[in-house]
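Co-fold these.
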Amino acid sequence: MSDTHAHSVAFVRTETIPQAAAPANASGPVKWARDNLFATPANAFLTVAAIYVIYLILAASLPWILNGVWNASSLAECREILQGTSGACFAVLTERWPQLLFGFTYPATEYWRPVLAFVLMFAAIAPVLFFDLPRKLLIITALFPFVAYWLIWGGSIWIPIFALVGFVAGYFVYARFVTKSFAAGFFGGIAAAAVVWVISGYIVPVLTPEETFLSAVPSRDLGGYMLNLMLGLTCVSLSLPLGIALALGRQSSMPLIKWICVIFIEFIRGVPLITLLFVASVMLSYFFPPEATVDLFLRVVIMITMFSSAYIAEVIRGGLAALPKGQYEAADSLGLDYPQAMRLIILPQALKISIPGIVNIAVGLFKDTTLVSVISMFDIIGMIRGPILASQDWNGLYWELFLFACTVFFVVCYGISQYSQWLERRLATDHR
Amino acid sequence: MNKSVLFGALAIAGVAAGAAAAGTLDDVKARGKLNCGVTTGLAGFAAPDATGEWKGIDAAFCRAVAAAVLGDATAVEFIPTTGKTRFTALASGEIDLLARNTTWTLSRDVDLKFDFLGVNYYDGQGFMVPKSLGVSSARDLDGATVCVQTGTTTELNLADFFRSNNISYQPVPIETNAEGAQQYLAGACDTYTTDASGLASTRATFENPGDHTLLPEIISKEPLGPLVRHGDNEWGDIVRWTLNALITAEELGVTSANVAEMASGAENPEIARLLGTEGTLGEMLGLDADWAMRAIATQGNYGEIFARNIGEDTPVGLARGLNAQWTDGGLLYSPPFR
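Predicted complex below.
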C-alpha cells in the first residue's frame, strides 16, 4: 500500500510525532480557571465578586484570630495586652478548657475517666460503623455501655455488672423460647431481665463497699461538651432500633400494635422537643415523691430518644414504602417467617435507602442536645451562657466562645456526614 | 442509672403513699443535703467560679441554712434554675429552698403558693444608656428600643412605667443578663433595663464603662429574697430566722471572726440568745442550740457576706444603700431574737 502513492507525495512521515504538552491555555490551572471560574462574562463577574467577599471576611477575621491572646486570666487583662488593637481573647478557652469539656462540677482529679471512656468509644463504634472489621470486635461494643457508665458515673461496679447480667439473662431466655413463639421469647426475655434487675436492687447495696474504687459522680455534675457527646451517642444508638421497631409496628397488620405505634409517632412528632424537655425536667418531679425521682440525665435521654425515634421511624417507613411489593412476596415464597424476611430481605434494602434521612436526623439530634441548656443542664452552651459569661472575669466575650462551640460541633457533624457518604458508596449495589 | 430506673418504677407504685410526705426539715435531714435553687449565673449573687465553686450572696445564704440545719455548710446541692424553671422546681419539691434573686410580689406569694421569708437584697429597676445617646432621664426615652429579660418582673415594670408616663417603647426580649449586655453593646437596643445592681455589675465588665451611664430613675421596688413552698411553716420558720440571724448578727457586731469568743462570754443577752448560750430558741425551731452560731461562723454576718460578694471592694462594687442596717439609715431590720 505504501508504494501506491509514492510518486505523488513528496514527503511521508514514517515515525509518529512525539506527544507534546497541551498549549498553556488549554491545560493545567489556566484551563481549569477558564472552564470553571471565567467561562462566561456573568460567571467571571460572580467569581470576582465572590473573591472580593471572601477577601473582606478574611481581612476582618484573620488579623483578629492571628492576633488572639491565649494567656490571660480575665477579659480586662486581655484588653490590656491587646492595647486597643483588634484581637480575639482566646484566653477564655485556655482558662475554662476543662469546664467547657467536662462542666464545672465534674471532679478535676477524675477527668481521666471520661477521657478514657471517650477513647474506648472509638474502639466500640468501629466494628458497628465499618463492617469489614472482624465480627468478634462487637464484644467490645456490647461491653462498652457498661464500662463507660462505670467510668463516667463511678460508684459501685456491681450496678453495671448486674445490668449486664440482666441483659445476658434476657437474651438466653429469648433464645430459648423464640423458636417456639416470638412473643414468648420477647416477653420472656424482658421478664427475665426485669427479675435480675429487681433482685440486684437488693443485692447491690450489700455488695457495695464504703469506698468504691471509682468515686461516684452524680448526673448533675456532668456537663460541658462531654454531656453533648454522651446524650448524642446514647440517644442515637437507642433511637435507631426503637425507630425500626416503630416503623415496622406501624406497618403491622395487628391493629393494637399498629395503633399504638401510629399514636406514639404522631403525638411525638406533633410536640416540640423543648416542650418534652421541660416536661422531663420539671413536670415529672410532680409525679414522683421528692426522694425518689428518676435521674435527670435518664429523663432527658428518654425524651430525646422518644423524639428522634419517631422521626427515624418515619424515615424508615419511607424506605419500606420504596421497596417493590415483589420483595415481600419473594420473601414469603421462600418460606421465610416474619423476623427472617425482615432481617434478611426487607430491612437491608429499606435501611440502605433510608441512610441519608437517618443521618440527617442523627446530625439534627446531636445538635439538639444543646437544648438541654434551657432546662439548666450545663452542656457546652449552658456552660457558655451560664457560668462563664456570668463570671466577672469573662463577662462580655461572645465570639470566641461561640466560635469554639461551632467548631467542636462542626467536627463531629461533618464526620458523621462524611461517614454516611462513604457508607452509601460502599453499599451501592444498583447498576449505575 | 439502672438502679434509679428501678427506684423510679417503684416510685410510681409508691406515689399514693408518698403523697403524705414528711416535713421538708425531716427530708433534708434524712438526705443529709440541702437542695438549694440558685440562678444559672449572676455575678455576686450566685455564680460558679473557675474552680466550680458557687459564690455570691444567694449561695452564701444556702450554705448558712445548711450549716444551721445540718451542721455542715458544704452540705448543699446547688441546683441551677432559669427564670422559667425556678418556680416549678420549687413547687415540685425538686428543691427545698429557692434563693435566686427573686422579687417578692403578692401574686408569687399568694397565687403561686410560696412563702417569701424576708429580703436579702433590696433592689430597684434602672436603665443604662450610652452617654452618646444624650438622655438624662428615663422619661426622655420615648420611642426607644429597650432590652429586657423575659419572664421577669422587670418586663412588667417596664410596661407599667412607660404606660404611666404616656410614652412608647419597643422591647427587645433577651434571655440572660450576658445576652442583654451583648445586645446592648451591639446597638440592638438604645437602653438596657434590669435591676440596678445588675446594671452596675454589667457596666463594670464593659471595655469602656465610662461611655455608659445609669439613669437616675429607679422605677420599681425589687425586694429580692429566699422563698419556700407554702404550707410547711416549720421549714419556712427555719429559713426565715436563719436570714434574720445573719442580719441581727451584723447589728449586734457578731462576726465570723469573733463569734466563738462572743458565744463563750457574751454580756448582751440578745447575743447570748442568738448564739444559743441562753434560752431555747434553737429547740423551738427544731434545731440544736448552736444553729445560728454555725451559720455565722461559716458564712459571716450579713455585712460580711455583702462585702465579700457584691460590696464596694468587689468588681460588682455596690454601695450598701437601702441594704444598710436600719441603724445606718437602711431598710434591714430583723425582728428581735427573744
